[in-house]
Amino acid sequence: MFTDESPTKPSLQHTVSRAQPVIDSLSLILGPIANSNEHSDNPAMSLLHNQTISQDIMCRLRLATSGSGTDDLCRWLYDTFQSNIADLQLVVISYIPTLARVYLSRCISSKETLAGFEAVFLTLYSHETVIRGAEPCIIRIPNNIHIPSAVESGKANGKGKATATEPDSIEAMISPALEPCNTVRATKRGLIVSVALDLYYNNISLMPICSKIEFCECCIIWAGQDEFAGVEQLDEEEDNAKEEEEENAQEKEEEVEKKKEHKQKHEKCNRVPLPWELFQSVLRILGHCLLGPMNSKELKEKAFKAAKCLHARAVRDFDSKAMLASRSLVRLGDMVEEPVPELQPSVITGDLSELEALRASIFSR
């Protein structure tokens, strides 16, 4: 006998009943603004995509007094992720870019304790450690470097000596096996933050656009002011060349954008150390923002600028791995920006006529 109630409805109601008290506790920190989701069918997902609340939380995380052991917002992020409610965990994951942005910058600029930030990163690290099960992250890359020729294939099939065959794929380790960690040491800081960024990347398709834009801005700041200024100078030269061909209305819009970029250029920031394990996690996220299926023009522009800034940083640091990886991402971004040329009908007709003439000459013999 069929009933009107869906079998998934009780589980959804149970999840909502568990998530609602956690969301209500956020109202004690943010005020009545957090109560705007109380009438939603899924308050946790509404909280994830609420831009007003997201901007408020990001601003609070950037305050000079944030990140301490008594920070109520960090405590809420920690307790919310520990609740094991999947939708609420996504809310916490969406703020990883802001947490990493503030935490890494303050670690090198001040000696104050950031126990609140570190507690959140440690719970994210522990969560990922359990998921990986003490196993390294390994990918298989197709081995297309050596392709045997027809002569080599014939020799291999003949009576000659047996030759060692090349493997079909090459294993590459992205991340080593994770060990339990209860404190954040300076030598493990890059690894712990990179694991949190890997968790962000694994859920990036569910992240709101504002969170991804925040991450791209973090990368621009992490690259350092010198690299950012160099890229901005190149961008301004390109914009000046385009402005000569555009209308007055478009020029006004570009002037407004330049003012915003000028303010961001003079933002005080610190040059954050970017070890390879952290750098590759950053590039994976930028690759999704730049080449992913999103239709946000602002996101793609921010991601492309961030990739160029990180490449300039890698060149200055003489980091060969980072230079190769970031340059590849920049070239892919250039390919996305370039329009695909259309094949002219005259070219197709000319090629077909030559083929028909060649075919006629062959059959006439």
From TrEMBL:
Residues 234-264 are annotated as: Disordered. One of its GO terms (biological process) is protein localization to plasma membrane. InterPro entries: Hyccin (IPR018619). Signal peptide: none annotated. Keywords: Cell membrane, Cytoplasm, Membrane. One of its GO terms (cellular component) is cytosol. It holds the Pfam family Hyccin. Residues 234-248 have a biased composition (Acidic residues). Its main location: membrane. Residues 249-259 have a biased composition (Basic and acidic residues). Coiled coil: none annotated. It is found in: Cell membrane; Cytoplasm, Cytosol. Belongs to the Hyccin family. This is Uncharacterized protein.
